[in-house]
Amino acid sequence: MKKEYDVIVIGAGNAGLVSALTLQKQNKKVLLLESGRFVGGLSASFVRGEFTFDTNFDDFLLYGNGEESGIITSLFERLAIVDQLHPIKRATTFKIYTLNDKKEYEFPFGVNEFLAKMEDYVAGSQKSVKEFLQISKEVYEACLNIMEMKGKMDFTLLEEKYPNFLEMASLSLEEGLKFLKIPRKAAQLLSGCWLLLGSPVHKVSFVTYAFSFYAFLSFGGYGLEESSHDISLILSEEFLKYGGTLKCLNEVREIMVENNEVVGVVTTKNERFYSKKIVADISPTKVYGSLIKDNVPLKAKTLTSNRLLGALPVTVFLGLDKSLNSLELHEGTSFIYYTLNSQKEYKMMHKLSHPNLHVWAKNVLEDKAIIKITGFVYKDAFKKMVTKENYFALKKQLTENLILMFEEATGKEIKKALWEIEAATPLTYERYLKHPGGTIFGYLASGLDDFLPRILNECNEEYIKGLYFTGSFGAFLASPYATYLNGEYVANKLLGGDSDAKTW
Amino acid sequence: MPKLGNLLNLRERRERFILNGQAKTILEEEKITALSNIIHPKGMRVKVKKIVNETAEVKSFYLEPVNSSLMPPFLAGQFITLCVTIDGRTYKRPYSITSKVNDLTEYRITIKKQDNGVVSSYMFREVNEGDLFNILGPFGHFTYEKWRDQEDVVLIAGGSGITPFMAYLQDEDFLKHIHSLTLLVAARFDQDIIFKKEIDDIKAKNSKISVTYILSEQKREGYEYGLIDEEKLLKLHLENKSIFVSGPLKMYFSLNEIFKKLDLPNRFIRHDLYRERPDNLGSLEHTLTIIMEDKVIKVPCFENETLITSMEKGRVKTMVHCTVGSCGFCLSKLISGEVKTEVSALKKKDLEHKYIHPCVTYPLSDVTIEIPIK
Q1: Smallest Cα–Cα separation from A321: which of A363, A358, A359, A360?
Q2: Which of A67, A100, A117, A399 is least surrounded by CB atoms within 10 angstroms?
Q3: pTM (two decimals)
């Protein structure tokens, strides 16, 4: 019997799960194939002693502050899972440390609060920073609007409602901040969250940064009690409840294509499943590099072979037997840079010995805490250094470096409270979360491969009929909230409006 | 409109790049993938190179790779899962690696013969040099971490619990790093002590190491007598030392009581994975139904056997690795039935959604579970 489905979703990461659930709820017959034992993709979690560590960067789900819905809240409302979620205020501020001049900057969440604090740090910056934040708000709204256009760009609407957004659309962050005549120091601090996107000021577009930064500033103090792994579980349960078919430990080894149109997949167990529509929550590099056997369209090859991978992580997960307060450590997000010059740091980060850090800290279990320190490097930095002989030693050395940098920045010794420690290198991420090269950012958000060019061209880049991409390698870039949204966006694009949906 | 032009221009430039750009080979980060297959292999074939009798009830098996030159690197304290097929039934058992971390030409694992132990009896009676096995791993985090652990280290081994420590004792980097190492080896009789000569040789060469042997059922010169009690532990001055415990569950419990009394911080005390069958289990027979994608298999199960044991006996392929509810490889969904499940590395949400680790779960009624299969 031929196993036929309306849609096959490859990969049960969060985007794949949202796609599958959205489609299944529209009465499509969906098959969700996952190569791992379990759903969630990058949203995995693991237990060490008393602590549960999350591999995802779920610290800034931007869930909203109870009065105002965050960027992701309405999606979870549409998926009807909000009853199972519990918003929680995690932090009131975020911090930026610079090691070279031993400075630290602490900013409150909330647009007005941030603005006031910036004026404290850089006198006279208020006017231009205010303008930046106003434009960022417009960019944020414009981007949300674009995300809701289901692949059909309404340029007239964009022109009418978002002139400032259009004005800034083709600028890099660096160019945008110059254009707005923001004082240098203020510009450096404003772009101080660049590591969240893994792309420095001269690479990342103004639009991408402004969108993310505005969302972060508005909702960043709030998250959920549930980890992103918990959310993956909830999504998969819902998918099953609506009658979807989920097969874990089913790795796709081939996407079958006939006459430039997908017809189905073959798994490593040599099972064949048929569908004219495939949503790939895996990297295009893998799809075009090995899953499609012959006749990869030239344009797909040109595009894919020229894309750069995003920053590579080395993470150390720490479980502490004291609360953050008693250690006088900051709860929430911090960035630890050598300098505020991200262009320079980006260059230096092509060396393994010069990572820049993203830190996430939260109190758990009444009087304990988790600190997750991730150092990012670029391109071949890890690959060049690692061998099978030196792997464990290198891992130890990298871990040590991260902790030392953290202690240097904060001036606090964490060893005296350390209960559990675990580390992950790009190799760990590659092996257990199956991200090519171990990146967690998908492709580097940069120039012609940033959010706008990706989404503007998405319709033209369906090189094989019926094949859609989602997830961290997709048009919405890699961030926990964007990947959920991207899952829904692709599902909606497939559904193509309710009337069309009935025809297949 | 010039402004909209910004947007259209982006689109056109990307389009033009894709049209005129150079199509290169799509690179899939093969080095990282190849390396991760070496460091964290998904399983490998090994040959029994040598078998050595350690005591009357303990044998060491030296395993060498069949298809590659070296075994994967491991950390002192880690284990492998040995897959043993007996009468068409595959059993998986974790064994600590007892050899040197920097000699990867072979692993040594050391197995004690258990009463009624299907696998250990088989390993003792049937296995010869040259036999082939599949192994999984190395896994485990019963390891010394420089950043976390103290430089004064106490290792407490009960019976065959000495096995993970044998790798510690031969780990040169570890020995170089620490300030002092105190090893307590507890056994019933002197002839039960595994690796005595090896341990004494290592100790003789390293002044950082001190060793005490304790016999619970025999008085003999050069050995202490009795159980590991408060008095013996007080002599070790445990404050500000990292304590690693490996041995039977009863020993964990009694030691934990003493540690609590001495007010030692939990973060200085680490236990190797170890599980024993809980007391007060029934013995009734039930039916275990296993759903594996489109297949449904039914096997008998018993209240005093884990679901994994019933699956192994029923010739059902299992994903189990650690057998003690820690690694998560056997994670399954409980569809129906009552079970008794031990504390394991399940997350809160897993429990809410009725996920279980069958390796530490006992049936209390007919049970249906769903498992993914490879």
Answers
A1: A363
A2: A67
A3: 0.93
